[in-house]
Amino acid sequence: MADIPDDSAALLQLLGTPGTGVFLDFDGTLVDLAPTPDGVRLEAGVIEALALLAERHGGALAVISGRPVTQIDAMLAPLVLPVAGVHGVERRGADGTFSVAATPDVSPVLARAQALAAMHPGLLVECKRGAVALHYRLAPELEQLCMQEMTAAVQACPGVVLLHGKMVLEAKPSATDKGGAIAAFMQETPFAGRRPVFAGDDTTDEAGFVFVQQAGGQGVKVGSGPSAATLRLASPRALRAALLAASVSPFKE
């Protein structure tokens, strides 16, 4: 990854500046990707660093994930943070208020994805609130077939769009995305009036990068690939190192 710019110093400065609102993707950002969604593991010290950093920023630190909120809570326990799940379909504010956006019927997509997975054991289907993810990490040779099937399924479901992530195709509501989730947080205490910083690794994070930069903040792309983000880190390990350093470094006024 030597060809990937390392903006760790710039991120550390942002994380160590009062008035920053911190938003973090989970998979491929806080944790390394794994062959299956339940195979990811948090490195030692990350939860403690997040807790310290959240406290230093007055609670203005949230996780913005494609996972359901319940999964994020289980991964971060005992820490409880503001969270947006399923790309913004689910959202729990800093005050604990839980909201759910209206979602279209994705049962036809689920049925088609499950039928395909039944014929190909290497495929994994995730059913979420208003969304369906088809993982082909264990069967990369099936990418084109998965794309054909999921594209056809989504075209028959109004209000649903297809996102192509890292070895996953996800059908989700077109009305919600990570940018909208961050925008909602930015209307609430303790995020309101802060400069947003959002770190993510995948195409599903691009809407978040666009929003925070339009709001005067910074997007941080983790890993390779084209992105709207203005800052770049080589890997989740580099992001975790910045979080750990920022959690114990003095604020820079």
UniProtKB/TrEMBL annotation:
Record-listed E.C. numbers: 3.1.3.12
Pathway entry: Glycan biosynthesis; trehalose biosynthesis
Keywords (A to Z) from UniProt: Hydrolase, Magnesium, Metal-binding
Database matches in InterPro entries: HAD-like_sf, HAD-SF_hydro_IIB, HAD_sf, OTSB-like, Trehalose_PPase
Signal peptide: none
Catalysed reaction equations from the record: alpha,alpha-trehalose 6-phosphate + H2O = alpha,alpha-trehalose + phosphate
Cofactor(s) this protein requires: Mg(2+)
Enzyme class: hydrolase
GO molecular function terms noted in the UniProt entry: trehalose-phosphatase activity
Pfam family of the protein (one): Trehalose_PPase
SUPFAM superfamilies on file: HAD-like
Family membership noted in the UniProt record: Belongs to the trehalose phosphatase family.
Purpose of the protein: Removes the phosphate from trehalose 6-phosphate to produce free trehalose.
NCBIfam families: HAD-SF-IIB (TIGR01484), T6PP (TIGR00685)
Protein name: Trehalose 6-phosphate phosphatase
Organism: Janthinobacterium kumbetense
